[in-house]
Fold each of these.
Amino acid sequence: MPKHVLLIEDEPNIIEAISFILSRDGWTVNTHSNGTTAVDTVHARRPDVLILDVMLPGKSGYDILRELREHPETEGLPVLMLTARGQTKDREMAERAGVNAFMAKPFSNSEMLEMVRSLSTP
Amino acid sequence: MARDTLTGSRIRERRIMSGLKQAELARMADISPSYLNLIEHNRRRIGGKLLLDIAEVLEVEPQVLTEGAEATLIAALREAASDLHGHEAELDRVDEFAGRFPGWAALLEQSRRRIDTLERTVETLTDRMTHDPHLAASLHEMLSTVTAIRSAATILAEPGEIEPEWQQRFHRNIFEDSARLADTSRSLVTYLEAADDSGAEVTVPQEEVDTLLDAEGHHFPALEEGRADPEALAQQLGHGLTDTARALLLRILTRYAADAARLPLAQLDPLLKAEGPDPLRIAQAAGFDTALAMRRLAQLPDGHLDAPVALAICDASGALIYRRPLPDFAMPRFGAGCPLWPLFRALTRPMTVLREEITQPGRDARSLTAWAVAQPLGPAQPNRDPLLEAHMLVTAANAGSAPDPLPVGVTCRICPRDPCIARREPSILGRPA
């Protein structure tokens, strides 16, 4: 059974590229673009891996992640966070929120794919 | 007071630095303690063998005692010493350094000032990178667009077949994203160029204005004579200043012009002759407020008064918005002044004119007279507390003024007073001997 990744990102062309790369690798990809309803979508979709952008309309990726970590069903969900800000303090903020992996834009397709694969491996 | 009449003050300062009591130095110099006391308070001239003997006891060159150096320079050197990491500057010999090598001391002070400005530039730019919402949004959009282009281009460049529909889609995405990237880049460059033209707030506007006012001697003949309007003068003098500094300068010049019109030199001069540089008496005689008299005294050209005066103005938050220091009454270039200045006390007693003898310790210990008053800004409003602004004028003390002037500092960092209930942060000077 193919594994399921949920991509929460508001940039349409990034969504399209990542969706293509992961689908070609055998993943089932769902996408979502709104920060405000992101937590509900995660609970509804129950993905194996979550790719989460930091700057989203309505709510930041950090806030979404903190909320997810408070729920028993999503407290262990592997999360890869994407951000245009790769400074140390941004990484630290992501780590405090409970992130599993962190990638600064622009990233390479192969690195992103490897990261998602490694997060899905127990 | 001429600088060569301050030898006694310098002797007192060096004695305190050496940890000697007055009686001990008097005994070692073979004079009576009461005579030394008169010398230290500049009431007896000193020279010849006695000066050489005292210099020998204090282990300094005689000219260090007779020539000294300006308090502002000393204060700047002490501030510079506070930046030294891993080494300790010989703070107890700072006066000697400034006195013996005035050129090197000035160079050090200027270098430090330059470093301060550059550090502030870096801080401002860093701050802008972090907090400027337009810049952050632009950079975020550029990186997101570059990410999309890179991903799509990599997909297209990788070996292997891609369905024509996907191929077309990624080509279209790259085309759209490259156009978006070009727009964002152009917009960002325009924004940064505009910010650069406006001075980019990378210097300290208040310091720019202070430097200009110091260079002009805080006196503007064209405004005194009504030959120029403040706006034109601000444009002329403010060439090369940042927009913010020019705005500050215009505010100061506008007030100057209004002050000169209300109390012209022709009216001030006879009052000055009759009352001396006493702002309260001048204000009473002229029928104006004391703050106006203080400003007018500080606006007089060099040589108009027997001794120059210092003026500090602060807003209701205590922030210094105007400074005219004296060689013997230093003011901090940045940040807050000494909380003991009557200037700040005046804010707690609006409309009361305070007069107090003060001295800045660690220097010539010269006694000065400080006048301070806080007055409301703008007209009264019903049921609204007035917004206050405080002025402090510092003049040479009159003979026979209070024997125990209030010791005040410049700013805590370079003030030796300890203990001091007003201290905000430790001094780099340590405990006085």
Amino acid sequence: MTDSLSIFQRLRRTPYQAVASVFMMFITLFVMGLFLLLVTSTSSLVSYFESKPQLTVFFSNEKDKTSIDKLVNKLMTTGKISSTKYVSKEEALNIYREQNKDDPLLLEMVTADILPASLDISATAPQYLNEIYQMVKGEEGVDDIVFQKEVVDTIISWATTVRRIGLIFILLLILSTFFILLTSIGMKIAMKKEEIEVLKLVGATNWYIKKPFVYEGIFYGFIGATLAWLFCTFIIYYLKPYATSFLKGVGTLSLFSYQGISIDVWPPNTMLILIIWFILLCSGLSIGLIGSLFASSRYLKE
Amino acid sequence: MILFESVTKKYGPRITAVNEVNFKVGDGEFIFLIGPSGAGKTTVLRLLNREIMPTVGSVFIDDWEVNKLPKSKLPYLRRKVGFIFQDFKLLPDRTVGENIGVALEILNRSRQEINKRIGEVLDIVHLEDKLNYFPRQLSLGEQQRVAIGRAIAGNTSVILADEPTGNLDPKTSWEILKIINDINKEGKTVIMASHNVDIVNSMKKRVIVMKKGKIIKDEKRSRYL
């Protein structure tokens, strides 16, 4: 109750309440950590795809370079194209080799002949994409057109879903944690009712009486956040090999980069791990602080 | 200076615990409040540290009108007024030193100052060798001495004692009274509610006699019976 008793002594006297509070805090922050990772990953992935050419046109073997150049000129006259990049069969093979350099079996089976030449097209504005698509579709020797917008739209769609479900889930968990903290601290205050009365009679301020409970809430937040961070870090490194094969060909996905300091979502760097720890810690401490302040104010009516 | 001006305290419409009480206590005085159970002695003490509010009238301690103090100032009033209870009201899971230290911790004193003052207070209440004992390991008299220690440890200028010898045998009661008397000699004002006629008579201090909530006698160097 008083400063002469350490927080550990106080926790030792009510271990089950302490464990319940820390566990709830951990679950909430762990889910929050996973949600954070998902949101940042999907956002980075969306940005990545948005930065790529919006249309990729694959040509049949019959289509020669001259007719492709004609197509490019025709497209450029519309004024709706910002850039184009021709990828020959040989270049496509090089890209393929680079992407599959760790898998010799796949390299052996592929030659430049079986890879199509392609043209990456970027529009000056997304609303022109459909028009360009229609123009290119009617051309002879066009095998396939990959519309990056569809990929981006799909990612955005499930990113939005993840965000919504995650937010609702986290709000519910924060609410549960808040109530568990409220009950746990409320019970402690009830148990110490006489002691609190004595402290008031000897001239203790309300803050002096509240302080140990608030410290306790903050302590729960700290432990919960640290455990959640450790588990999140474990999950990141555990899933990394699986994600590597899934994100093959995708380069570095940076969330933020300034003067040599960057937060990379993929491959996850130390800065990302530290930022997650910082966010979880701030969240844990805030939930602990607000929850315990609310509980102590409610139960220690001034 | 303590002043009661036409103070009445009612509990509901029928029970009048204190009725039109007027008295004044000078700095450094020692006063016995005596009377049968239900006379209003404890109510007077509780009005002084604002555990309860008067229904009518005003209570003053120095420049403070106790009943008009904002709640935020209440802790400061109680740091000025040390209370010794009949049932001691010690913190059971704190040692003797920690119980006394509470009164200093709330004043934000440094650990070094607190330890020094605890040592001084233990000397005054003759518990030098009981620093690390818990209340349950002490006799009733020793527990009351810890409570006295807590009451005087801070900046108290007034000591209110509600039947401090009520639970004690005669010999221990005298020891406690001697300590309280010594505290008074150092300049602290003492108001002590008591049933113990022998003590009241032998101390020859000012006695306020209460009956049914009213003061029926207020005499200096009085013999009650």
